[in-house]
Amino acid sequence: MTAVASSIEEPLTIFERSRPGRRAFSPPPLDVPRRSLDELLPGHLRRAQPPRLPEVSEPEIVRHYTRLSKRNFDLDSGFYPLGSCTMKHNPRLHERVAALPGHARLHPLQRPERAQGALELMWRLQSALGEISGLPHVSLQPSAGSHGELAGVLLTRAYHEDRGERRTKVLTPDTAHGTNPATVTMAGYEVVKVGTDPDGNVDLDDLRAKASEDVACLMLTNPSTLGLFEPAVAEIAEIVHGVGATLYYDGANLNAIMGICRPGDMGFDIVHFNLHKTFTQPHGGGGPGAGPIAVSNRIEPFLPRPQVVRSDGHNGDRPGYGLDFDRPKSIGRLRGFQGNYGVFVRTYAYIRSLGAEGLRDVSETAVLNANYLLARLRSLGVLEQLPVAYDRLCMHEFTLSGAPMRRDLRIRTLDLAKRLLDFGVHPPTVYFPLLVDEALLIEPTETETRETLDAFAEIVAEILREAAGDPEIARGAPYTTPVRRLDEARAARRPVLKQEL
Amino acid sequence: MTEYTSVTDADRREMLDAIGVACVEDLFADVPQALRLAHGLELDRGRSEQEVYAELRELAARNVSTEDELSFVGAGMYDNYVPALIDALISRAEFLTPYTPYQPEVSQGGLQAMFEYQTAICELTGLPVSNASVYEAPSAVAAAGYIAKHFTERRRFVVSRGVHPHAIETLRTLAHGWEMDVCEADLSDGLTSLPALDDDVAAVIVAQPNFLGAVEDLAELAAAAHEAGALCIASCDPIALSLLRSPGECGVDIAVGEGQTLGNRLDFGGPSFGFFAVSEPLTRRVPGRIAGETVDLDGRRGFVLTLQTREQHIRRERATSNICTAQALNALAGVIYLSWLGRQGFTELGELLVQRTAYARERLAALPGVELLHAQPVFREFAVTLEAPVERVIERCLRQGVNPGYPLAAHYPEHPRGLLVAITELRDAADIDRLAAVLGEAVAAEAEAGASDRSGSLEQVRS
Prior knowledge:
The complex is a heterodimer of chains A (about 500) and B (about 475).
Chain A: H1 3-9, H2 37-40, H3 58-69, H4 92-98, H5 101-104, H6 116-133, E1 137-139, H7 145-162, E2 169-173, H8 179-186, E3 190-194, H9 204-210, E4 215-221, H10 233-242, E5 246-251, H11 263-266, E6 270-273, E7 293-295, E8 307-311, E9 320-324, H12 341-379, H13 382-385, E10 398-401, H14 403-408, H15 413-422, E11 429-430, E12 439-442, H16 450-469, H17 471-476, H18 488-493
Parallel strand pairs in A: 2-3, 2-4, 4-5, 5-6
Antiparallel strand pairs in A: 1-7, 6-7, 8-9, 10-12, 11-12
Helix pairs in contact in A: 4-12, 6-12, 7-8, 12-16
Chain B: H1 9-19, H2 24-27, H3 49-61, E1 70-71, H4 84-90, H5 93-96, H6 108-125, E2 129-130, H7 137-152, E3 156-160, H8 165-177, E4 181-185, E5 187-188, E6 191-192, E7 201-208, H9 218-227, E8 231-236, E9 254-258, E10 274-278, E11 291-295, E12 301-305, H10 312-315, H11 328-365, E13 370-372, E14 381-386, H12 390-399, E15 402-403, E16 406-407, E17 418-422, H13 429-451, H14 457-461
Parallel strand pairs in B: 1-15, 3-4, 3-7, 7-8, 8-9
Antiparallel strand pairs in B: 2-10, 5-6, 9-10, 11-12, 13-14, 14-17, 16-17
Helix pairs in contact in B: 4-11, 6-11, 7-8, 11-13, 12-13
């Protein structure tokens, strides 16, 4: 192997590329009288040595990070059916409009009368999200889905406290995303798990048994993390409301139902949106996102501060937009400033591009694609080794179990996932939901073509055939990636979390 | 079919046949009829790309950005120069479009960038462990408080009034759910003045420099916290850490801060990132993602997400936090920015800011009707008191195309005429001279207006 190839294969860190004296930045000239630094910042407040940042030139930085980028799989390059994550195409228009200086270089503390375009955009987005969810009052502030969950549980607490009630428990189904129980603890409540019935729905008897006057809230994902719609959602709402608790909608799976049905109409009090899932904010390799919430009338007084508000224009003037801090019952702030505005710009552009019919088409196509992919896998015999966890029509995603595959072919779901990498496909979500043995959660999204779905089904069938011949191939996979399987146990046992310089 | 989907009528027909249903509607059989939307969403029709662009451009045009005025507003986010290479690199699809690196074999680029970022943050903060970033600074302060709550099992936070007001408010929001008290420590001549600390204090929370721009003696504050058995949490301006003693060296246990100023856009407040670094004993209590180095089957160096037993997908209700994301793309911009500045450049930038800020502070303090709010050392932001109603003075300056700073009255009622002025490397000596001229004129004009109208109307303008 040549030196060039090996340096591409095992890139150095930017710190290892550092050589004394190299630089990329040339500072603007000092154009004010120079004062002694000791006079401005006394020595005991200053550091003795500058931080040992890399010393590299601009071309090196560009090449280094360009090479690093080529060691990533990305959505533009291939199919990414990562269940629960809604890896849909990221329209490039959104990047263009978010970069307009009027948005990108707007200071968050700009006076509202000088940020009318931004506030109006936020107000219009609030209205659109309110319409999509069927819950009229929206706060855009939370930074991520789990942050929206935290907002929702704190709103629930404020709601009960305002009524003079002290409740201690929050119910979450055993299929819930891990963030749900973690959020409950962080908001100072105790988690109580609700079981799943043989059809994959919330176990109503278990729910009835656990719904008591101590319960503050039920957090529900619908469609569930199994990709199934809860047919008895109205009854669930009745049970929960019957004990005076609130009903929280985890919006991770909203992509299945836009324009078809609405959480507000199902009886939910609070919903969070994942703008980085349903509304195409690029995931950025793990953030940024945004997790706005929408709530019913009874929860509205407690929404975070500040709220974007509109006042009618006088004498035919435009309406005015402002930030309302005067909300005495508000839970307060959840973060700095007004939220991830750059994400709002992209989301708003997406909603404007698609409109009401387009959003409905998104959800219909997402559900069509998921069911079609399931049908293709079935017709290829894949489901004999990877049976669907609950055999019904799915919504935008579905869950398979790799238990028979493990037993008969002696490869695990993890092996299948790793082998998929060699075929240029990002694996589905694996080992979630927890209640499905060797789970595989597959979400194709609406932006994939039928040909892509066909090809994926063929690849899975091929890997199973291959494993029937020789399971070691999948067990040793991947082979074609920049690195092979990594020793995660070692990383956790002897953590190396930074470079020693 | 929309511009982002590709199922033709023929495709749909065949796909439905393969599924074994007659129409798309049948796929939603589990959705009770009573819950189905009868008339569709009440939203406008979809628009063409060029129409949407025009609309978003029109909205942008109704904002006054830092390109449209000479702005000296900081107060937590700064109009720094973002070098062109950041735009080019972070818009690469390989960085822009992937999810969290769940499959490390095909995510080495993002994971290594996280590892490099963590290394850079450890260098800045002087602390041994950094995560891969959290949402932004104020929520990072609250997340740090959550660590202190569990680590000390105590019930009170003492937070300096020099901490960003949004961070204090965010901490209060969360502390309520934890049934913990938040006590504010006053500022005295610009610096935090700690009260006597009881043995129920979980953490002393301070900012460096503080909200009024003053550089605190972090070592002293950390020592006081430790004496009481509390942790010390410092929210730091990362650019100021180019010159200031690192929080780690000062004994701080958890250093957090706002990453916007490291190569990220203002974006009207987000997305940016919060950095989060801790001392060794707190390693396994850190929220969010952490990248770690390891080897693959063939012994090659590689990177993975690690210490995941802290996290909610494994630990669920016993997780150390509910945070399950970083701000990976923003943090990537951060580490690229720090590499671009480099070891020498970072210090040079820090010195330039300190010199220009000192110049600006002197120029403004020399104006009639303008006084320094405190005389403490500052880095790139300082506070003044005007002998005229601040809002009116600002109005006058805005008419001249100058936004002179952020008024302090809303957060500091004791400083009804306080103004916080921020300097970035984009504001040169001529800009500062212009600020001095415009602000001086505005203060003089308002002072004169006040003198001719002593009816107390000034007080009404206090916001």
